[in-house]
Structures are given as C-alpha cells and as structure tokens.
Write a structure and sequence with these properties.
- Helices cover 40% and strands 13% of the residues.
- It is built from 17 helices and 14 strands.
- The strands form three sheets. Strands 4-10-9-8-7-5-6 form a seven-stranded mixed β-sheet, sandwiched between helices.
- Helix 3 runs antiparallel to helix 13.
- This is Aspartate aminotransferase family protein.
- GO terms for molecular function: transaminase activity.
Length: 453
C-alpha cells in the first residue's frame, strides 16, 4: 500500500533533529518560524536537501513532496539544468544595477507563450507582481478601487488581501461587508475601496460591479483560486467577467502566480479569460525569487519613462536579477508542451484514482483541481465556491488527520492548499498517493477517531 523505501523506523517519522532546530528557532523568531504558512504542529520539519520529487529532512526522513514550495518547483528539487546554469553564472556576478541580456531572453519566452502578454516587467515575488498589476490598473484608469474574489489569496498587499479572511460570521450577517481586513490595524479606508464577489456567481458579480463601477480600476481574479478551494471557473462566469469589465471600462487582472503552471499558455488561455494584465511568479523563477507583470502594450505603457517620469514608477533592487532570470529561462525552456501534457496526464490519473477510492468506500470526500494541481475536500458534494469549500471545525480536524496520515506514510500533503506535481514524479509516485488515500479511508472506516494518529 505504501512506499516502504520512504519510511525510516516503520510507520511514522522521527522528529528529534527538527525539534532541536525548532527550539533554537523559537529563540530568534516569533513562534520559531519565518512564514505563517509553515506547519509547526508539533514542530516544523527542517529540510536537509531535496532530490527530484523528494525531500530529505534533518532526521533522514525521505518524503514525496506534493508542496514543492507552494507550487513553485515544477521540476522538483535540484533540477540539474537550472543548477548547472546558475553555478556557471555565480562566478560572473549575481546582481547589478544595470540590465543584462538574461532578462530579455526570459521576457521573450513568456511573451511568445502567453497570449495576453505583449510587454512585461520583472519584480521579486508574486505579492509584488499583484501589487504592481493593481497599481498599473489604477494608473491606467485613474480609479482607486478593485474588485476581487471572496476567499482567494493574492499575496500581502493590503487591497489584494482584503476579503481573503472571510468566515460564516461575516457572510451570515447581511449588515457586514465581506471586505474584511486581513490583519488588525489595517486602515478602514482600504475596505471601502475593495468590492468582494462570490466566485462562479454571475448575479452577485453583476450586482456588485454595477454599484461600484465608477470607482473600480480592475477585477482581480485567479482563474482557479487555490486557497478558496481550487475550483474551476464556470464558462458563464468567465464570460460575464469579460462582458461587465468591457461595459464599465474596468481592467481584468489575472493572478496566475500559482496557476500559470496549468498549461503551456497559462491558465487564462485555458479558461478563455482575456485579461488586460497578468501577474506571474513561482515557476518562472526556476526556484529563485521572481515575479512579473505582463499585459497589453497600451496598459503597460504606465511603466514607461521615455518622456519623463512614468505614470507608475517601479524599481526594486533585485528586480530582474540575472540569477532568477537565468534559472527561470532554463526551467521554462524545459517546460515544453509535451512536458505540460505529461504532467496533466499524471494529474488526471491521480484525481481519477482518488475519486475512484472515494466512490469505492462511499466516503464523504471530493476532489478538485486541474493539470498538475489537486485538492481533497472532506465534503461529499464538490464545492463550487469558497463558502462551499469552507471547513467546519470537525472538517478541519479531519483534514489535519489526513495530512498526518500522508506524512506518516512518507508523503508531504499540503493541508488547506493545493497539492502539486513535478516533472520529477513518476506514475508509481502517483499510485502511491492514491493507495495512501485509500488506506486512510479504510482506517477511517475501522477507527473513525484514530485515522492519521
């Protein structure tokens, strides 16, 4: 049922060295970690190295990695072409105040592939990419407001994250706005400039956009919002977004920081969304920090300084640094149409396998996702938007047990986020995912309170 070579010391994993480093980390970091997304219950797993599809932690546990640094590593760990290219570059300099040819070659590759990108600018992260895409929309339209999808994750820019942390306490009260702040102390004025829309709800989209349209610069949309359920967009919803944006002169900003990995052409092209701007990141950096804003030449002119100060100044000490540019180019060159097709085939096999096990066991689970992405939900009916995907306390506890079960079987399964595949994975790896899930369902049937313990 499992990959016996993944485990050391039988079922379960050792944590002694990781616990040692966590104690040290708590002396220098709040909570002992530097990213809120790191699982630290009971302690984080500290990684020693990565090898292809696997991670090896400081205790020697070997784990099939379905996180890949939150979908970044499309080739897995230690991808040799990237490692060789970067090693050669390091001896010649890692960053300069002047441009290099490397930024041009990566830009040319992305412009050639992604239909919506005619011009592009590089930054250092997905958060920056979304932030500058929003700013570009504002500069182009001379409007301050944005509309965004309820529950979707778009990084750490105030306007992008407002409306992310919604809960039943908010949506069950008709007098409260869904544009809730993401952290204490966020200016109340931010929420006044953000319109929150339910995903795949055309009526809600049309009603809310119509009332806010005069102030809206853009509709910010992830074609398949990961944190909000990894749910596919309905064609009618995509068409409505395009029609209403055109009607009111609002730009469409597609956040493809995560979902660019859905196809050779990206996610917008896959779902027939026609954005004015695209925010990209993750896979285009080859494992190094990167972000990009691309789109129509007319809109991207807000960054231009040919005639003096641009409408939107954009700098960044490490923007377009040669290491990220070279690593990104090499990684993306290896992602041919055939490579994307192979990943999608593996994803289809895994999603079908998981669904077959759910049906065989009569379990109250469902699976969403596409291409190289999947997510398991503790719900018998597949959710259609964030509210339907939202986990009740008992469902959240069940998903914790599922993640622990996978970890005990040597597989790192993200909890509450997209699981992703890499080109380093094999069919046997995919089958191990399915068989591990089947074992969890069997254990759950026999011992409803002990699965994953």
């Amino acid at each position: 049922m499992f990959h016996p070579d993944l485990l050391r010391g039988g079922r379960g994993i050792s944590r002694s060295r990781s616990e040692h480093f966590f104690i040290k980390g708590r002396r220098v970091f709040p909570t002992g970690i530097t990213r809120v997304t790191v699982d630290h219950e009971p302690s984080p797993l500290y990684i020693s190295r990565g090898e292809g599809a696997y991670l090896i932690d400081v205790d020697g546990n070997r784990l099939l990695d379905l996180n890949n640094n939150f979908t970044t590593l499309i080739h897995g760990h230690g991808f040799l072409p990237v490692a060789d290219a970067v090693a050669d570059l390091l001896h010649r300099g890692t960053c300069f105040s002047n441009p290099t040819e490397h930024e041009i070659t990566l830009a040319e590759l992305l412009i050639e592939r992604i239909p919506a990108i005619e011009h592009i600018r590089f930054v250092n992260s997905g958060t920056e990419a979304v932030m500058f895409a929003i700013k570009a929309a504002r500069a182009f339209t001379s409007r301050p407001g944005i509309a965004r999808i309820e529950g979707a994750y778009h990084g750490a820019y105030d306007w992008a994250e407002t409306g992310q942390a919604v809960s039943p306490a908010i949506w069950n009260d008709p007098l409260r706005s869904s544009a809730v702040p993401a952290y204490r102390g966020m200016p109340a004025s931010v929420g006044e400039e953000v319109t929150v829309i339910r995903f795949n709800d055309v009526a809600d989209l049309e009603r809310r956009i119509a009332s806010a349209a005069p102030a809206l610069a853009c509709i910010l949309i992830d074609p398949m919002p990961s944190r909000a359920g990894l749910i596919a967009p309905e064609p009618s919803f995509v068409a409505a977004v395009g029609a209403i944006a055109k009607q009111y002169g609002i730009l469409i900003v597609a956040d493809e920081v995560l979902n660019l990995r859905q196809s050779y052409l990206g996610a917008s092209a896959r779902y027939d969304l026609q954005p004015d701007l695209i925010a990209a990141g993750k896979i285009i950096g080859g494992g190094f920090p990167v972000g990009a804003i691309g789109g129509r030449k007319e809109v991207m002119r807000v960054f231009a300084s040919d005639s003096g100060k641009p409408l939107l100044p954009q700098g960044g000490t490490f923007s377009a640094n040669p290491v990220s540019m070279v690593a990104g180019r090499v990684a993306m060159e290896a992602m041919t149409e055939a490579a994307f097709g192979s990943l999608e085939s593996l994803g289809d096999r895994i999603r079908a396998g998981l669904r077959n096990e759910i049906e065989r066991h009569g379990a109250a689970f469902s699976v969403t996702g596409a291409a190289s992405l999947f997510r398991i939900h503790p719900k018998g009916k597949q959710p259609g938007d964030f509210r339907e995907a939202y986990l009740a306390p008992e469902e959240a506890e069940l998903m914790d047990r599922l993640s622990r079960h996978f970890l005990n079987c040597g597989i790192l399964l993200p909890n509450g986020a997209a699981a992703c595949l890499s080109t380093a994975m094999t069919t046997a790896d995919g089958d191990a995912i399915t068989s591990t899930f089947a074992d969890f369902l069997s254990t759950l049937e026999k011992n409803p309170t002990e699965a994953g313990i």
